[in-house]
Amino acid sequence: MPFQTIPPSPKLSAPVDYALLCFDAEARERNDDPDGHHGLLSTRLLEMAAQPEITNIFLFSHGWKGDVPAAIEQYNDWLTALMTSHADLARAAQVFPGFRPLLIGLHWPSLPWGNEEIGDGSYADDSAEVDDLRRLWQQRLGDTPEASVALDTIFDAAAVDSAPAQLSDPVRQAYLDLHAALGLDGPADTDGVPFDPDATVAPVIDDPDCPQPDYGPGCARLFSGMLGALRVLSYWTMKKRARTIGEQGMHSFVKALQAATADRRTRIHLMGHSFGTIVISSILGGPACSGALLRPIDSVFLAQGAVSLWAYAESIPFAPGGSGYFYPVLADRKVRGPLVTTRSRHDLAVGKQYPRATLPGEVAYSDDDSAEPPKYGAVGAFGFHGLPAAVATDPAAKMLPDDAEYNFEPGKVYNLDADDFICGGEPPSGAHNKIAGSEVAHAIWQAAFAAA
After folding, report:
1. CA 226 – CA 375 distance, rounded (Å)
2. How does the average pLDDT of the chain come out, rounded?
3. For residue 129, what pLDDT is reported?
4. Does residue 163 sit within a domain?
């Protein structure tokens, strides 16, 4: 996509320009960007990063945003908050002499479960509409012969009964075949659990956070009924795509940024939201989390992450001798400054949907802060657990007002309780996207300053 400009507004005194670097569903950079060289924006961004006036590079990854307009909307909101934090901007000019940032937003197709297409699980009578739905899911889950055959079996059965008491043997096998065709056996983080299509036809759990029928399928119903397993597989597919984009194309791009700015050691800061926290973690880790960066990243901010709370663990209690998939990021000291996460109990997407999508039928969420962390849960609900003592900080740390000092230390991991600021929103996602407040922007700035 062309470079984006956020126009001036009552909040924003001057326009803000940023680049939108786009990847396709196959985790490859798109080659049709009119602002890129031969259609590739990355090559032009490397030239811009190498200019001596650029002092800092901020790279953002959204989470489950299905299309480019949705990604632009989030980046506009997030960057407006960042660039209207006037006290922090004034401090940036002091901490980073001649401060001039290069802002880069990553877009990747990431709609996780297609709630708007499947609706309440009922099936339309119009055969044309049924065929359109079938084609949409073939495209979303990979239009391969193996996937198409499995989807035909599933949709033919759903046309007869969309909410059976149990799955038939052919449908169960079709789901297992689809899972294999999608190549979902590899770890996207530490939530590598066996796929059980039968769990999606379990009785729907009444959930006070998702009243019916006002919000359609709601929280529990997203992963129930004949087609519920499609949402599970779509969710897992998006997690895999996030890891693939981060480990491959974006890891290489960030290394190229480091090479282009090696003489001046331009500071690079990474921010991710939701599934974007998998993208950012995978950029740090590289292929199979064993890739090397040219130098440590200056700061990392992971907002309401849809990645396992054990993903960075040195030791996982229920997996003796095992560590989290992204633990090498800490062990190899790939982040020079602080790594900061946010968590909020008002975020229903990661607090409720994440464990249900990971293991349908088992909801791993507790309102008791003193309770032991669950086996399946997201960092956006619990923060990272199992961290090495050398990097762990106060587990009860709070997100602060936008004029407070954090005193972040380089090399430490901070899990900020953001209940007071990341709040509001309606079911089924709750406050999941409420990340454009001044307090969140201030925490991002404070992380960047600590790296200096």
Report:
1. 26
2. 86
3. 61
4. no
Beta strands in 352-436 (DSSP E): 413-417
How many Å apart are CA 121 and CA 132, to the nearest integer? 15
Cα–Cα distance for residue pair 340/105, rounded to 1 Å? 19
Tell me whether residue 377 is in a domain.
Answer: yes
- How many CA atoms, within 13 angstroms, populate the side-chain half-sphere of residue 150? 24
Q: Closest by alpha carbon to 280, among 58, 49, 75, 19?
A: 58
Please report which confidence band the pLDDT of residue 360 belongs to, taking 50, 70 and 90 as the band edges.
low
Question: Nearest 10 degrees: CA dihedral of 283, 285, 290, 294?
Answer: 70
d(CA 241, CA 181): 14
* 256 domain-assigned: yes
SS3 content of the chain, % helix, strand, coil (to 5): 40, 15, 50
**228: Cα separation from own chain's centroid:** 21
Q: What is the pLDDT of residues 378-408, one digit of tens each?
A: 999 999 999 999 999 999 999 999 999 999 9
Rg of the chain in Å (alpha carbons): 22
Q: Would you say 441 and 85 are in contact if contact means Cβ atoms under 8 Å apart?
A: yes
User: Per the structure, how many domains does the chain have?
Assistant: 1
Residue range(s) defining the domain that contains residue 427: 4-111+239-450
Half-sphere exposure of 135 (CA within 13 A, CB side): 6
Instruction: Tell me the C-alpha distance between 291 and 395, whole Å.
Output: 29
Residue 269: enclosing H or E segment and its boundaries? strand 267-273
For 284-297, give the DSSP string: HH-GGG-PPPSS-B
The model's pLDDT over 59-110, given as tens digits with 9 standing for 90+, comes to 999 998 778 888 999 999 999 999 999 999 999 999 999 999 999 999 998 8
By C-alpha distance, which of 416, 427, 434, 423 is closest to 345?
423
Q: Six-digit token pair at 322?
A: 């095992």
CA torsion 248-254-259-261 (nearest 10°) is 170
The β-bridge relationship of strands 16-22 and 101-107 is parallel
How many CB atoms within 10 Å of residue 426?
A: 11
In a domain, 124, yes or no: no
Instruction: Give the whole-angstrom CA distance, residue 401 versus residue 395.
Output: 18
Structure tokens at 188: 């996207």
